Amino acid sequence: MRVLVTGGNRYIGRELVFELARRGHEVTVVNSHESPLPEGARRIHADRRVAGEFEAALTPLRDDFDAVFDNTAFVLADLEPMVALFRGRVQHYVFTSSQAVYKRSFVQPIGEDARRHPPDDDDPRKAYGVGKVRCEDLLLDEWRREGFPATSLRVGHTMGPRSPQPTRDPAFFARLDARRPILVPGDGFPMLQLVHINDVACAMASLLGNERARGQIYNISGAEVTSVAGVVTLIGRAVGVRPDIVHVPMERAREQRPPLLHWGEALLGSAWMSIDKALRHLDWSPRFGIEAGYRDAYAWWEAEGRGNYEFDFAAEDALLAELGWS
User: Fold this and answer.
1) Which of 60, 118, 152, 170 has the smallest number of Cβ neighbours within 10 A?
2) How many other β-carbons are positioned within 10 Å of the β-carbon of residue 56?
3) b or e along 204-239 (b: 16 or more beta carbons within 10 Å of the residue's beta carbon)?
4) 97, 156 contact by CB (below 8 A)
5) Under a CB-based contact definition with an 8 Å cutoff, are residues 92 and 151 in contact?
6) C-alpha–C-alpha distance, residues 251 and 313, integer Å
7) Which 8-state DSSP code applies to residue 166?
8) pLDDT tens digits, residue range 153-180?
9) What is the pTM assigned to this prediction?
10) Distance CA 245, CA 260 (A)
């Protein structure tokens, strides 16, 4: 197929571009920053943050694609022009949504029919998840009214090479390399689920040609679940260093800025998603377990990642001193 990918220059998007090319698809990327592309892939320069740039760049090419993977839409203003541009022209439109759409749940795992944040919730702390909710609703309405062939993928917590956020894998690797302690809120009992970015890319690529997936929403995450402390331990195994875990009293951990860990579950309680629907509907299953996923990410870190990030552990050091750790 002739496929358009928005973003595609790092992390999940880049993994998707190479996976699509590996499967023999003709890939075009539209983004604002260059990065290595597979042989034969085409790049269109446009910055989505600049009003009208995507439309100007893509309008002359709107009949050139069979499918679109939209990895960089976060609010309706991002998505609406693309739907207008490709309505009636593509066989599939895949939207990257997020686990962040869900409200906290007492019942685990979380299915696709679980409660989401209301689309009119204006709490700035929920803005990312609410933006994705609004985008999902637009696409579902387009499917019901016009047959617009959209699929939304609610992607869980990720791991893998080229993290765009230093607070994810890189911060753990940097701490372990320096033999720094890992600070964990409370006992570290809340449960976590993670997915490797290649497993996400493979789930996305598996949608092409799958008519059953049109008009559907899928949770996409890994098959393994463990505690916060368990994830830290598995990261240590992947690195080859036994982590020195410092348990911070929960009340104190909730006050810490920046947060001790980037996973909200560490402070708010367990959350993981059922991937049963994706396993039934798609020719896909996750290949990476948690330890194997971090081992792959650490191999990239060792080869080329170390110099790409800067870390400030001053607040962490102050807390350690406050706790009397030495």
Assistant:
1) 60
2) 10
3) bbbbbeeeebbbbbbbbbbebbbbbbbbbbbbbebb
4) no
5) yes
6) 20
7) T
8) 999 999 999 999 999 999 999 999 999 9
9) 0.96
10) 12
